[in-house]
Amino acid sequence: MTNETSIGSHDPLRVLIADDMLPIRAYLSAVLSHEQGIQIVGMVGSGAAAVEKALATRPDVVLMDLEMETPRAGVEAIRSLSLCDPPVKCVVLTHFVDDETVFAAFDAGAIDYVLKDSSVGELLEAVRAAALDMSPIRPQVARMIRAEFRAMRTERASLVSTLNIVYRLTPTELGMLRLLAEGKTQSQIAQIRHVEPSTIRTHVGNVLKKLGEPSVHDVVVRLQHLGIFEIFSSE
Fold this sequence. Notes:
single chain, 235 residues, Rossmann fold, five-stranded parallel beta sheet, elongated, disordered N terminus
C-alpha cells in the first residue's frame, strides 16, 4: 500500500511510535489515536524493535526517538529503514536540538525533525507531511543549516588561501612541516636531513613569513586541520 493511496482514500495513515519511555509512548498514542484518519500500528521501546516492527507492519510513518537502548539507536534505526525498498519514512521526535544530532538524523534518512515540546498541531503536521514525502525546513533546523553553510564558506576560503601559500613552499619546507606534524623536533629533523639545526631554523623562519603565523606549531595545526598533508603526497 503506497502512501498516496492511504492518504488519498479512506484508509488511515498508519503510524508506528518508537520511544523508550512508556509515558511518552502512551501520550503520543492518545494524541494521534484521537485524530481522525490516523491509526497506531504499534509502540516499541528500542531502535532494534522499531526496525523489526516497521518491517512487519510497513507503517506510513515512524515517530522515532533518537536515544533509546544506545545514544544513537534511533539514528541507526532510521538508517536501516531508509535503506528498505521502498524506504520507511521516519520523523524524529526528540529533546535534542544540537547541530550534530540534527545533521546525523537527516544524514541517516529522517524526513523531519520535531522536538518533544512541540505543539500537537506541529506534530500532526509533521506526520502528515512525512507520509506525503514532504520535508519542511523548520526554523531551528534552518538556522543550523545557515550556520553550517557559513562555516563551510569560511573553511573553504581558509583552505583556498592556505593552498595558494602552500604552493609557494618548497618541497623541503613542506617535508619539514610534515615531520613536525609527525611529532619530530627541529633537532631530530636536522639529524634526519643531515643538516645543521640552524638550517632548519632558517626554513622555519621562511615558512612563518609565507604563512603569516606566529609559531611553527600554529602552522602545523592549521595545515593538519585543513588536511594539507593528505592533499600533498609525501616526498
